[in-house]
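Thread: "does anyone have the structure for this chain?"

Original post by V.I.:
We have the sequence but no experimental structure in hand. Need at least a predicted one for the grant figures.
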Amino acid sequence: MGRSRGGFSTKLHLAADLRSRPVSRSLTAGQRHDRIGYDQVMAGIRMPRRRGRPRTRPARLLGDKAYSVAAIRTGLRRRGIAATIPERRDQQKNRLKRGSRGGRPPTFDPDWYRQRNTVERAVSKLKQFRAVATRYDKRAFMYLATVDVATIKIWLRDLTKDQQHTT
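Reply from O.Q.:
Generated one for you, tokens below.
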């Protein structure tokens, strides 16, 4: 099979709430760094409130080591978002090599990091839909539309569970 326009593969970047419901998504080429998709995902976060404008700033970001980039950490600090991202070994080694000029290690809370599986569960909920899991769509906008339809179904399913529990 030939190579598609996006490269060898594609990567779906996803933000999810603590109930494992997708909130924001973006698609990049598989060989690109996770930093590329981060900005689009953060810009797409819109959490509705009972009154007023939707929330665009999460209280905390839980990420894996791929998001342990200085630009991401400074952007989160500037926006006042708490981050729980483990430091990569090469970053630890470089910081220690610089001695006192290397600065302090970034704060890391292992209890919060255990909650990172919510994104993994959101991805597995999306993969319950065959069209999302197999990626038969050739064009990126069609695949994102498929992901959006699956996300809508996940949210609707979750809302019906809430209504069943309240009655």
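V.I.: this helps a lot. The chain has one domain: 10-161.
O.Q.: and Strands lie at 10-16, 22-29, 60-62, 82-84.
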